[in-house]
């Protein structure tokens, strides 16, 4: 009898330890909830690229991915609405918009984490965009062929969408970045789980791929400026 009694005690202890361990496992939202929102700075993006490529690239290759501060627009200090931020970084927008006549291209490219967020940003830029044409560049409910046809036939000034779909359009030569002057990353916004776009592994990977294959060279050449909203 005493033996049975002693056997049952460690089992109970073990079970409670496992439960405690399960409880202790932190989710990303728990970590983010405790950290106060901070405005993004160019070093945040630079550090992200260095961490991502650090193990697989040589020092020279990583050097080629570096962006000087002159490649960046002023970052959002968390006091701006999207329209007021765009007005601050693009004071000559009306002139740029009038000059832009090229198909298969946009003057400004806005990248965010989801289709829903893209629609929110399009609504919130109403005071800035005026009568310029905006194209939705995300996958939800819109086939890539449809977007390719629209870009082929019309002139659009702003493209708002997800990095995965934008990357696919660039790779298929449906979207040309030679006319693009501004690329805005929706950096500070958090979803219901408190994740920013760079906290979501798939979005982070696609954004970094797009930056590496297309955007960084244009930034280093001085034709594209990066904004962190």
UniProtKB/TrEMBL annotation:
Signal peptide: none annotated. Residues 1-38 are annotated as: Disordered. It comes from the Eukaryota. Pfam families: CMS1. GO terms for cellular component: 90S preribosome; nucleus. InterPro entries: Cms1, P-loop_NTPase. This is CMS1 protein. It comes from Bombycilla garrulus (Bohemian waxwing).
């Amino acid at each position: 009898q005493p033996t049975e009694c002693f056997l049952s005690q460690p089992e109970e202890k073990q079970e409670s330890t496992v439960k405690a361990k399960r409880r202790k496992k932190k989710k990303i939202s728990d970590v983010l909830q405790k950290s106060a929102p901070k405005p993004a700075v160019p070093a945040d993006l630079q550090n992200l690229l260095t961490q991502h490529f650090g193990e697989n690239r040589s020092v020279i290759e990583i050097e080629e991915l570096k962006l000087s501060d002159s490649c960046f627009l002023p970052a959002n200090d968390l006091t701006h609405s999207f329209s007021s931020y765009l007005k601050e970084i693009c004071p000559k927008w009306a002139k740029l918009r009038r000059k832009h006549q090229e198909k298969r291209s946009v003057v400004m490219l806005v990248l965010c984490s989801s289709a829903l967020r893209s629609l929110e940003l399009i609504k919130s830029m109403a005071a800035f965009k005026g009568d310029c044409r905006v194209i939705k560049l995300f996958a939800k409910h819109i086939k890539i062929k449809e977007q390719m046809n629209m870009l082929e036939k019309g002139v659009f000034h702003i493209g708002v969408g997800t990095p995965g779909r934008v990357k696919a359009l660039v790779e298929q030569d449906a979207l040309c970045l030679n006319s693009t002057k501004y690329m805005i990353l929706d950096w500070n916004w958090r979803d219901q789980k408190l994740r920013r776009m760079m906290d979501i592994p798939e979005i982070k990977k696609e954004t970094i791929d797009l930056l590496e294959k297309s955007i960084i060279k244009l930034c280093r050449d001085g034709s594209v400026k990066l904004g962190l909203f």
